[in-house]
Sequence to fold (463 residues):
Amino acid sequence: MRKLLLLFIFSVSITCFSQNKQILYNFTSVPQSMLSNPGADVNYNWFVGFPLLSGISTNVGSSGFSTFDLFANNGVDFNTKLRNVVFSTSRNDKVSINEQLEIFSGGFKLGDWQENAYISFGMYQELDVLTYMPKDFAILALDGNKDYLGKVFDLGDLNARGEMLSVFHLGYHKKVSDNLILGVRGKIYSSIFNVSSTKNSGYFYTIPGTNSVYDQVISSNILVNTSGFTNYTDNYSGNAGNDIIKKTFFGGNLGLGLDLGLTYYPKENLQFTASLIDIGFISHTKEIESYRWKGYYNYVGLTPDFVLGNSNDILDEFNKAIPLDTLHTKYTTWRPLKFNSSIQYSFGDGRSSDCNCTAGNENKYPNSVGAQLFAMSTPRTPLMALTAFYRRQIFDSLEMKATYTVDSFSSKNIGLGLSANLWKVNFYLLADNLLEYKDISKANSLSFQLGLNIIFPDKNTPD
Fold:
């Protein structure tokens, strides 16, 4: 059982993802940039994404360690490497998993009577996981408590959430003046699976008494909520694939969300953007099963080695100390709120005002430099990243964006994005942490995004 617990802790940590998409943000030659800012300065006549190919996104990162730290072929015993990782990380080291697959997408400019307004729509599938390093649990799993007399183990170290869901969205943006663009996007969430355990508390300690007697105390208030799993246990005879498809198309636990965004030009070549993404919640009312360990236990005896130290079945021993209750009560989860903001200065030979191939004011200039700030809410401290970038319109059909990002996972993250148009077909490829590709096992973060769209530029744009 100890091996299973360790495998769970570290297999999750090795395959972690981050939700920041610093290369895509405000890269307005790519329609998917509107997902990170519904007020982005885009000006296509209309676009449509290739189904299942318009937006594929994966991001990998770890703030505590890399795959190399555990699996390097360097002659060091695996148990030693495992211990080094456990004791070099802290309870604030975090793992974030995010994957997105766009199912369909599209957008169009409204008629001449309101030509500065735009409608966009689409649907995507998302996997979203966030967990903190459960350090005290890992120490107990490795060593037990015998060598930690007097240490208070924090049961609140267990802090994790995970969800697979689909999102249908409808956006509207309008150029309200020559300098200001506002956008809003409504969302309907359909949760397929959910696990949430983020508000745990409690402690465990062992202290020596007299005559080799030890006093052990557990105070526990741990709650693990789940939804979407109960139909697949106890002799399930259905079709899991059909069930997941049904949940994807509004058959799961439903919720509502909102995105807000803007683009503002203090000067023609100076741009400010900001957005709030996923202001929303999901109400879990179907297939609910929650598990609660709540209570207080005080043991006085001769054996200092408790449940996680030297036991063949951790759960059986733990349940003797703190009873397990199974609940079927509805609960609500809030989506992780993302904030983006950027400032951009454009320069170079000014282009004709007739050239508006993909966006507004910014594409009159072939070069742009700027900075972007990203923040995401978590159960503890926010995830944050700061990015410096350079954009270059190489040809009318080819644009490049280079980034340098500092975040929780890396301080030397260099990224590159390319967006190319061949006739009406737009192809984009974005990747970051390029310096780590020489040995990806040592990388603390890697990501890539790609997609295909059909774009018809603004009707005033020459082909």
